[in-house]
Amino acid sequence: MNWKTIFNPFERFDDKALLGIGILTTALAILMGYWTGTYFSSIYKINSLDKVTFQAVAVPTLVSFVSAIAILFILGKILNSKTRLIDIVNTVLISQLLLVILQASDKISFIKEAQERVISHQNHPSETIPLWDLTVMIGMASFTLIILIYSITIYYNGFKTATNIKKWQHIVLFAAVSLIMTLVCQILTSKYF
């Protein structure tokens, strides 16, 4: 396994195996959401729930994933008529795999306690700065950023592989459609779910 495989598994692994991992990712996202009281309001956006039910987690998570797949499939067909649905499904679902880890971060007690102590310090700035807690917060922020960058890289490389896009205009269109899709999905899922 080399760097290219890590950042673009779509060229190396069988699409059916990736689909299985993608379906497992979706199930894990729902189960983790039920455990942590969170759901995906769009790809790349995890929200908290006040009242946790299986339906309150599963429906918006599935809607956000399915809407991303549908919109990217339409865009893919516009850019390349040979775009296959399974490749777009794999792109969206595999790109969300590591984000499931971020769902669990709220349940890790020392991270939550460090956040609370740093917030408490902001209310009482005369106290000494909790350096360990600040280090934990910076470490978690760095970890989250690395996960997001990797996930977006997988997302882009998967779409690029699925559609065989090469022109910069297509890449800009992909980025714009992805951003708009993410924002609209967040608005709709937060309004109706």
From TrEMBL:
<feature type="transmembrane region" description="Helical">
    <location>
        <begin position="168"/>
        <end position="189"/>
    </location>
</feature>
<feature type="transmembrane region" description="Helical">
    <location>
        <begin position="134"/>
        <end position="156"/>
    </location>
</feature>
<feature type="transmembrane region" description="Helical">
    <location>
        <begin position="88"/>
        <end position="105"/>
    </location>
</feature>
<dbReference type="Pfam" id="PF04893">
    <property type="entry name" value="Yip1"/>
</dbReference>
<feature type="domain" description="Yip1">
    <location>
        <begin position="4"/>
        <end position="184"/>
    </location>
</feature>
<dbReference type="InterPro" id="IPR006977">
    <property type="entry name" value="Yip1_dom"/>
</dbReference>
<protein>
    <submittedName>
        <fullName>YIP1 family protein</fullName>
    </submittedName>
</protein>
<keyword id="KW-0812">Transmembrane</keyword>
<keyword id="KW-0472">Membrane</keyword>
<keyword id="KW-1133">Transmembrane helix</keyword>
<feature type="transmembrane region" description="Helical">
    <location>
        <begin position="17"/>
        <end position="37"/>
    </location>
</feature>
<feature type="transmembrane region" description="Helical">
    <location>
        <begin position="57"/>
        <end position="76"/>
    </location>
</feature>
